[in-house]
UniProtKB/TrEMBL annotation:
Cross-referenced InterPro entries: aa-tRNA-synth_II, aa-tRNA-synth_II/BPL/LPL, Phe-tRNA-synth_IIc_asu, Phe-tRNA_ligase_II_N, Phe_tRNA_ligase_alpha1_bac, Phenylalanyl-tRNA_Synthase, tRNA-bd_arm
UniProt-annotated location(s): Cytoplasm
Natural source organism: Lentibacillus salicampi
Keywords: Aminoacyl-tRNA synthetase, ATP-binding, Coiled coil, Cytoplasm, Ligase, Magnesium, Metal-binding, Nucleotide-binding, Protein biosynthesis
Name of the protein this chain belongs to: Phenylalanine--tRNA ligase alpha subunit
Binding site residues for Mg(2+): 256
Record-level GO cellular component terms: cytoplasm
This protein's encoding gene: pheS
UniProt entry tagged with the keyword Transcription: no
Documented EC number(s): 6.1.1.20
């Protein structure tokens, strides 16, 4: 048995030295030291030995097991080091190579338009306010002089969630909320950009979801001329100093008098062409003087306070400014379209 143990040690040592990878080394360990390994098989025969031989053979067996284990550990360390060196060699990075260019995104065209408008009005003393997109019927309609049953509600074609909750059809509720928050005790000068929703069929000029920016200025002695001057400044800033504006009478339940604003056509300089439908003018937004009922419902004394409000669509502004013919381009995530306007200046119309 002593000779068997020595033979096992020699064979194991020779195989361990020849092992070329960790898998081979693991197989050798199982072959000699596993439950069914050579060394284990020899030890099972110790029961046939005399009492005097058992301790001697047991000591030899332990030394053989220890020797094989140490050989395996040393070889494992050597193979792991070799594997690491090979991995580092194969995965070496040439730091002298030029870096791969990283594509950097930019603001969406609508985001850029909204920020440009915000900057303009902040410069004129306005604050930017936001409100919930899921709105109550009261703030979306009633507080804006649109009581239940009012025919003008049909113009909004609303997404109702419950009888009292809906997806807001304009950002005017933010104006009503702000005036109510101030309790009729201080002036208001604000714009409110955000998403709005209407039951509309999507086509080149309509979308069931779009953005709006509405403005409100309430104070003592606010006049229609203040509204015209503000909108004139806006038009020249967005479309160029050569643009002219005109105000046409219109109707909105929350303003009286109400107007729609047109800008002169850049293509024909007001002479008339196919772009402006031969009128020389292009409609851009609506506005007017805040209706006394709206002021009173918000707690303002309509004898002391007056104000103006206006609303515009960033999509329409972007389409006019950059000559875009389909509103759906803004929402289709086509990078070919979006990347055209990272640094766009001026306008096509």
């Amino acid at each position: 048995m002593k000779e068997q143990l020595e033979t096992i040690r020699q064979e194991a040592t020779a195989r361990i030295k020849e092992a070329e990878n960790l898998k081979e080394l693991q197989d050798i360990k199982v072959t000699y030291l596993g439950k069914k390994g050579s060394l284990t098989s020899v030890l099972r025969g110790m029961g046939k030995l005399s009492k005097e031989e058992r301790p001697v053979v047991g000591e030899i067996a332990n030394k053989v097991r220890e020797a094989i284990t140490n050989e395996i550990d040393e070889k494992t360390e050597t193979l792991e080091k070799k594997a690491l060196e090979e991995k580092l060699r194969n995965e070496a990075i040439d730091v002298t190579l030029p870096g791969r260019p990283v594509q950097v995104g930019g603001p969406h065209l609508l985001t850029g338009i909204i920020e440009e408008i915000e900057d303009l009005f902040i410069g004129m003393g306005y604050e930017v306010r936001e409100g919930p997109e899921v709105e109550t019927d009261y703030f979306n309609f009633e507080a804006l002089n649109l009581p239940k049953g009012h025919p003008a509600r049909d113009m909004h074609d609303t997404f109702y969630i419950t009888n009292n909750l809906l997806l807001r059809t304009h950002t005017s509720p933010v104006q009503a909320r702000t005036m109510q928050q101030y309790g009729g005790m201080q002036p208001v000068k604000m714009i409110c950009p955000g998403k709005v929703y209407r039951r509309d069929t999507d086509d080149a000029t309509h979308s069931h979801q779009f953005t709006q920016i509405e403005g409100l200025y309430v104070d003592a002695n606010v006049r229609m001329s203040d509204l015209k001057g503000t909108l004139n400044t806006f038009a020249k800033s967005m479309f160029g100093e050569d643009r002219e504006i005109r105000l046409r009478p219109s109707f909105f339940p929350f303003t009286e008098p109400s107007v729609e604003m047109d800008i002169s056509c850049k293509v024909c300089k007001g002479d008339g062409c196919s772009v402006c439908k031969h009128s020389g003018w292009i409609e851009i937004l609506g506005g007017g003087m805040v209706h006394p009922n709206v002021l009173e419902m918000a707690g303002y004394d309509s004898e002391k306070y007056t104000g103006f409000a206006f609303g515009m669509g960033p999509e329409r502004i972007a389409m006019l400014k950059y000559g875009i013919d389909d509103i759906r381009h803004f929402y289709t995530n086509d990078k070919r379209f979006l990347t055209q306007y990272h640094h766009a200046k001026g306008g096509a119309l």
